[in-house]
Design goal:
By secondary structure, the chain is mostly helical. It has one domain. A two-stranded antiparallel sheet has the order 1-2. The longest helix has 28 residues. It starts with a helix and ends in an 8-residue tail after the last helix.
Length: 159
């Protein structure tokens, strides 16, 4: 969810260009206005910061990450993969003529998980059980955070 915060960071105004550069395919935008380079940058940097924080709290005990540099690299991979997963999902969402902001369940809730894991698993060796655990926990957290946002009036829909 960190890319949404990018619009509130004045230093990133120069990164406001849409990732699809406004291009269309068969009359529809490739990705839409919500996918911007500043969001991708904030998503990757958030992955970096969160990963270093998790390493500092010794949360990576099952993945074999044993240094701050490997934690940082993992964070960049996870953040970049999450952004790529979201971009790929957005491309297919536009092909199905689903509006930006409208939910495409369960793909909107899982795209970042698939993308992050697809990039990360090239460089770490973890069990399939941990992959399933990551998927279930982050899918559940996504639903919970969206629901809380809905109850607080931040989101207009629960999912």
């Amino acid at each position: 969810m960190s890319p949404v915060l990018a619009s509130y960071i004045p230093l990133l105004n120069n990164w406001n260009t849409p990732v699809d550069f406004g291009k269309t395919w068969y009359g529809n935008r490739l990705l839409g206005d919500n996918k911007r380079f500043r969001g991708v940058l904030v998503g990757v940097l958030s992955g970096l910061v969160i990963s270093i924080g998790q390493f500092s709290l010794n949360i990576y005990y099952q993945s074999g990450i044993n240094s701050i540099s490997s934690a940082a690299f993992s964070g960049v991979l996870l953040g970049f993969g999450a952004m790529i997963g979201d971009i790929v999902e957005s491309f297919f969402k536009r092909r199905r003529k689903i509006k930006s902001g409208d939910s495409w369940f369960p793909f909107d809730q899982t795209d970042y998980i698939f993308g992050g894991l697809a990039c990360w698993l090239w460089f770490v060796n973890i069990s399939w059980q941990l992959v399933v655990y990551i998927f279930v926990v982050y899918f559940g957290l996504h639903l919970l955070v969206r629901y809380i946002g809905y109850k607080l009036g931040i989101n207009d829909k629960a999912i």
